[in-house]
């Protein structure tokens, strides 16, 4: 807008100018929601300021439940009777105005004290009645935490439960049972020493679509049973993230087909033995890390056989074994690797650059893109550069235009380590030369 246009605003008739006081309450409430951002932890201060501007603003704010539904509590601030009273007043103010639907975010890191007991009881009551989202981040071994979770039997409105509970050396393994929550759609369970228990009085969680479990398995408990029951309890599960460590009791593998799962992330060996006979016919995305080389054939011959997009992170010792195991993945199209050293990558490229001598078939014949992360050129004439070009030529050979034989590679992306990219003295001549050679083969080198 020009200066002349701005000066013309003075000639606008007063009847065409609208004051915020003339706006309907619904529009003011929408403006408040955009300004306050109630999901932010400090939104209560903005709400306080809005409510003291004038009586109409206060009435609109008080009558807009969405402004009061996000409640954040740091229990470390409750150290005496006065701070306990302030916390209770905060809850007594927000909960009624939220009108039956609240989201609770709770954090605690200090040792418990007697002033928090009543707050934990109130939190349990809210989760068991009007809470749709409950997030707890705790770094202490507190009886109140166990009581809040384990004695919580019913949560009729709960849709999201996120627990991040880390302990260095707990006195004993806590066994917590999930509440009866028929509306639960997302579960995040990150603990150091415990796995949740499924409730015995509810057979399935039909709304549960996403589960993330990072836990230490205990051979003294039936943790493996709880993992296996994920697939029978959650018939519509779409996303599963398992990071399991420790020892499991011997258990029968899961012999079923889970057609609803589209995304799977696996870290650690304990889950592989349980899932060896699991079939995921509609799996689209998978990510693996910290998987033993001996488990790779089982993994890709079973649950990951139908994956189309695969990411391989840390903890895979043999990339040669990885490449040979991918022979089962005939639908794989997009592969992303993060090898820890160049020798692993060279081993992988050697296997993938030619058909199998035994059958003449190509591994992953449908692959169309490969991304290599954290690739570092060690020297000016690094032989790995030649290996990459050899792989690219093999996968873009004109004789492979027949889709029945092997799909032509379309994209090959090389990403240097982040610490090199952020270094102002980083010389990327070798990378630019490599990309130029790949582009000369008709490949795209741009990351998506």
TrEMBL record:
Protein name: F-box domain-containing protein
Superkingdom of origin organism: Eukaryota
Domain F-box: 17-71
Taxonomic classification: Eukaryota, Fungi, Dikarya, Basidiomycota, Agaricomycotina
Pfam family membership, one: F-box-like
